[in-house]
Amino acid sequence: MRRGLDVFATGEDPAARMRHELHTPLTSIKAYTRLLRDDLPANGLADGAACLDAIDRNAVRLERYVDSVVLPLAATGAPPPREGATDLVAVVRDAVDLARRVAVAGAVSVHADVPDTARVAVDEMICRHLVGQLVLWLTIAAPPHAHVEIALRRDPALCLEARFVPAGELTTAAQRRPSDNTPRPTPDLQVAEAVANLCGGDLRLDATSFRLSLPASALAPSPR
């Protein structure tokens, strides 16, 4: 994905090269995910099957996003017209549901505080890819027994804030578990940052949190 964006940024390759760079990893993700899914025993873990199914669905969505948004953007230099507002609350809830399944392995808890509805002027497919990637990254980056807090609020613009709290900050000294000093990978979310900017939004992140703001009325013009 990063290579594909580099191609777009430099203009050094034609559209066919960009299509290849973006579609090849997605095709591999789908193929290997479906092989793993087929190899699960009949009485295999339900959570494992659900996670593989979610990965496959998101890869398909991302393929459609590449074809409907990224490649046209590379050709025209402008985002496609907005077809309608997206309910960010529904997107966040779906992302949190998947994150909770993934979090079981590290005994990480995930909680989201969201209003009844919140509309943003971003295509739903793009929104799901962006929010899903960020929430999953934070859940995986959290140390064992940590708690992930997610909140959607207006401050004053609509923004999604999330952070993880280590177990040591959640319990008394007598209850604390041994700390996990395993180095956590530095987040590599350049694609997410680029997508947020193209949507007229803003993404700020560090090793333990992120803050994503998205436009509530109209897409910002893309810089040429």
UniProtKB/TrEMBL annotation:
<keyword id="KW-0067">ATP-binding</keyword>
<keyword id="KW-0902">Two-component regulatory system</keyword>
<dbReference type="GO" id="GO:0016301">
    <property type="term" value="F:kinase activity"/>
</dbReference>
<protein>
    <recommendedName>
        <fullName>histidine kinase</fullName>
        <ecNumber>2.7.13.3</ecNumber>
    </recommendedName>
</protein>
<dbReference type="InterPro" id="IPR050351">
    <property type="entry name" value="BphY/WalK/GraS-like"/>
</dbReference>
<dbReference type="InterPro" id="IPR036097">
    <property type="entry name" value="HisK_dim/P_sf"/>
</dbReference>
<keyword id="KW-0808">Transferase</keyword>
<feature type="domain" description="Signal transduction histidine kinase dimerisation/phosphoacceptor">
    <location>
        <begin position="10"/>
        <end position="77"/>
    </location>
</feature>
<dbReference type="Pfam" id="PF00512">
    <property type="entry name" value="HisKA"/>
</dbReference>
<keyword id="KW-0418">Kinase</keyword>
<dbReference type="InterPro" id="IPR003661">
    <property type="entry name" value="HisK_dim/P_dom"/>
</dbReference>
<keyword id="KW-0547">Nucleotide-binding</keyword>
